[in-house]
Request: fold
Amino acid sequence: MNTKGIIFDLDGTMVDNMMVHHKAWQAKLLEMGLALTLEEVREQIHGVNEEILRRLFGDRFNSEEIQFHAADKEKRYRDIFLPELKLINGLDQILSSLYRSDVTMGIGTAAPRENLDFVLDQLDIRKYFSAALHAGDVSIGKPNPEIFLKVAERMQISPENCIVFEDSPTGAEAAYRAGCRSVIVTTTHNPSEFQHLSNIIKFIDDYTTLDPYEL
Reply:
């Protein structure tokens, strides 16, 4: 199958930040009256922040309060992560190689715009991507495939000709439902957690052993 486009998830896929997110969520939820262990956070907290908070708290908070808490959690994350912000090992070389080879690349993330801009601008990598969509660009979060379908459309490439790099079962399922093949970066989840999905072509610890021509 001909690969014409590469779509990257952001958190846990381009930057190894999921434990920072988990700790920021744990502290924020405790402040809101919900005590979860880090393992419970890892298992339960995924997707768009507003959807997460509504799922956990129902109608306890109004829309304005939900938006405040969602944004406050992300500001905490950025403040904590900034001193250690970097691409996952080997990704800078992969991006440069694919860019020189005129491979079209995009980003489809459940993160808010502020977090996407934080990574793209702090690391000066925006030039590599012809499309970069975030939580505000979709009406339904992963595992709904909307984000990847929209990125592929923006890239003007059919989803079946795209490979999605993901780190979570939820994201990999979204790629599957979009008709994309997936490469899984095992920063957060074990390969055994993806056994129900048939679209996965490779598992990698980081990008140092990945040959872009394999894609």
Observations:
- The chain has two domains: 5-15+86-214, 18-83.
